[in-house]
Amino acid sequence: FPFIVAALVIIHLLFLHQTGSNNPLGTKSNIDKIPFHPYFTFKDIVGMLIMTFMLAFLTLNTPYLLGDPDNFIPANPLVTPI
């Protein structure tokens, strides 16, 4: 089922790129368009770098922040695991 949905999405995008999208008024609004490559590429790269630095900061400064507290209980060889 997921492959069928993915195929339909790809077909939809192909047809959309061939004919172009339309607006209800029918006017051409090329002035409002933003070029994809310089704007969104830079925006995505900056967002990815910020998230990578935040993840690195979290994992390098507080590595046990999201860990399970039971991992810090010393092992007792006389008690079997539950």
TrEMBL record:
Q: Name one GO cellular component term.
A: mitochondrial inner membrane
Q: Which residues form the Cytochrome b/b6 C-terminal region profile domain?
A: 26-82
Give the UniProt keywords, A-Z.
Electron transport, Heme, Iron, Membrane, Metal-binding, Mitochondrion, Mitochondrion inner membrane, Respiratory chain, Signal, Transmembrane, Transmembrane helix, Transport
Q: Where are the transmembrane segments?
A: 45-66
Q: Name one Pfam family in it.
A: Cytochrom_B_N_2
Is Cell wall biogenesis/degradation there in the keyword field? no
Signal peptide as annotated in the record: 1-21
Gene Ontology terms describing biological process: respiratory electron transport chain
InterPro entries reported in the protein's UniProt record: Cyt_b/b6_C, Cyt_b/b6_N, Cytb/b6-like_sf, Di-haem_cyt_TM
State the membrane topology: Multi-pass membrane protein
Q: Is Zinc set as a keyword in this record?
A: no
Q: Could you tell me where this protein is found in the cell?
A: Mitochondrion inner membrane
Query: What terms describe the molecular function in GO for this protein?
Result: electron transfer activity; metal ion binding; oxidoreductase activity
Q: How does it assemble?
A: The main subunits of complex b-c1 are: cytochrome b, cytochrome c1 and the Rieske protein.
Q: What is this protein called?
A: Cytochrome b
UniProt organism field? Bruchus pisorum (Pea weevil)
